[in-house]
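Fill-in record for Transcription factor 24.
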Amino acid sequence: GRPAAANAARERSRVQTLRHAFLELQKTLPSVPPNTKLSKLDVLLLATTYIAHLTRSLQDEEESPGEGLGTLRGDGYLHPVKV
């Protein structure tokens, strides 16, 4: 009855919020072409790869000031590694 409907509405809201958060995270990734469909796992893998890249760039900057951020290797896109 009513509790089941309230639970379903809460779950729909939770899923919608989570979906929106993943889309926002994907938009912040600089090397993902627009309108690319990615799974949540791929978005998380790309985000962690990008964070690692930024971390390495900052560490390199501390070691060699003035050289700026490094460039992304490959074709300019970060792709998740599927194992």
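KEY FINDING: The domain at 3-61 is CATH 4.10.280 (MYOD Basic-Helix-Loop-Helix Domain, subunit B).
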